[in-house]
TrEMBL record:
PANTHER family: SULFATE TRANSPORTER. It comes from Streptomyces lateritius. Pfam families: Sulfate_transp. It is found in: Membrane. This is SulP family inorganic anion transporter.
Amino acid sequence: MSRFPHLRQDFAASLVVFLVALPLCVGVAVASGVPAELGLVTGIVGGIVTGLLPGSSLQVSGPAAGLTVLVFEAVSEFGLPALGVIVLAAGLLQLLMGALKLGRWFRAISLSVVEGMLAGIGLVIIAGQLYAAAGLKAPASGLDKILGLPAAAVDAIGSPGAMASLAIGAGTVAVMVGWTKLPKKARTVPGALVAVIVATVVATVFSLPVATVEVNGLIDSLRLPGADALGGLATPALLGTILAFTLIASAESLFSAAAVDRLHDGPRTRYDKELMAQGAGNALCGVLGALPMTAVIVRSSANVAAGARTKASRVLHGVWLLLFAALLPAALALIPLPALAGILVHAGWKLIPFRGVTSLWRAHRGEALILVVTAVAIVVVNMFEGVLIGLALSVIKTAWETSHIKLEVIDKGAGPIQARLSGNATFLRLPKILDSLEALPQDRPVELDTSGLHHLDHACRTALDSWAERHSAADTEPVKFTALVKAASPEPV
C-alpha cells in the first residue's frame, strides 16, 4: 500500500465514475447514429490510454454529448466507415498542436463562444432526442428538428406505441431530476444509472412496445479505416469536418480542464501535455473506428467529488468499462432507447447556461449577444460554421473595444478651442473622430492635444493631417498639435 497510498480513495471513485460513464457512453453512441459498443470503446480508451498519460490528473475523458451533433452529421454525410478516418486525423492534429505547444492558446477563445457553442449543441440535442423518445425519425438539420416538433407531437398523440415510448423517456428525466433532491448519501449511485435501470425494469415487466439498444458485439462493432475511407481525405468537406472535430474537441477538453482545476487543490493541468493525451486517445479511437473523445466535465466533477486523488481512478474506470463490455454485453440489449434519449435530453438541458446568459446580459451585453448568436447559428446553419460566426463576432467586438477613443472639447468663448484626444485612434473609429473635428467652428483656431493617445495608426495620422490642412485653409491660424504621437510601426513580439 505504500506505493499506492491513495488506492482506497481512487478505487471507490473509479466505481462512481464507471456508473456515471456507462449510460452516457451508450446514450451518446446511440444519439450519434453509431453502434452502442463504440461509445464503450471510446470510454475504455479514454480511461485506460488517455488516463495513463500526463496532462491533467483528475480529468476523465470519453464520448461527450457536446460532439453528438457533429458526429451524427459526419456519419450521415460521409458514412460510418469515414468516422474512423476523421477521428484518427483529428487525433494526429491534436498531437501536433500539443507538440507545438499550442494548447495554452485555446484558453484565449472567448468563453461566450464556448458557452454559445454548448448552448447550440444542447438545443439540437434536446430537439433531436425528443423525436427519439417518441420513436420517431428526426429531421436532418437543427432548425428542421425544432420546427418539426409540433407535427411530431401530433403524430405521437395518435400512436399508442409512441406514447408508451414518450412515457419511458419522460420518466427517465423525472427520475434523474428527482434524484438530485435526495440526501447526498443516497446520491452515491448516479441518477442516470438509476433512471436507466428503472426504465429497463418497467419496460420489461409491462412488456411495453418500445425499441431497445441493438447489440452487435464489441469486436464486430470495431471498424478499422479502409483504403476507401482514407481516400476521402482529399475531399474538402471531409477536411473541414476534421478541422471542426479538432478545434471543438480540443476547446471543450481544455476548458473542462480549467474548470476541473478549480474543483481541487492537486497538481494543475499542463495544457500542452493534456492536448497530446487527448490526441493519442483520439488517434487510437480513430484506428478502432470508435467515437471521438473529449474530457467530460460531468465525469470529471464526479471523479473529484468521489474523493479521487490520482489518475488511478480514471484508469480503473476504463478497466470496469472494458470488463462490462466483455462480460455483460447482452445487458445492453435490455435498455430502452427512449431511456437513453431522456438521459441525452437532460444532458442537453444542462449545456444551456440559462442563468449565465441573464447575468452576462446585465454586465456585458456584447458578450451575451455573442453567446446567443453563436447558439442560434449552430441551430440554423451547422456546428462548424456556427462556431466560426461566434469567433468572428468575438474578434470584431474586441477590435471595436480596443479602438475606443474619446474627444474632449473645451471652448471658453474666446481664444483657441482646445480639443483633447485620448484612447486608441484606429481606422475603426476614424469616422467618429473626423465627424467630431469637422463639427468644430471653421473660423476659430484649434489646439489639438494628442498626448492622451496610446495608439495612432497610419490611417488616423493621415486623416488628422488632412483635416488640419482643411481647417487652416480659410484664413484661420494653423492647427496646433500637442505631443502628436508617431504612426504605429510594427514591433517585435
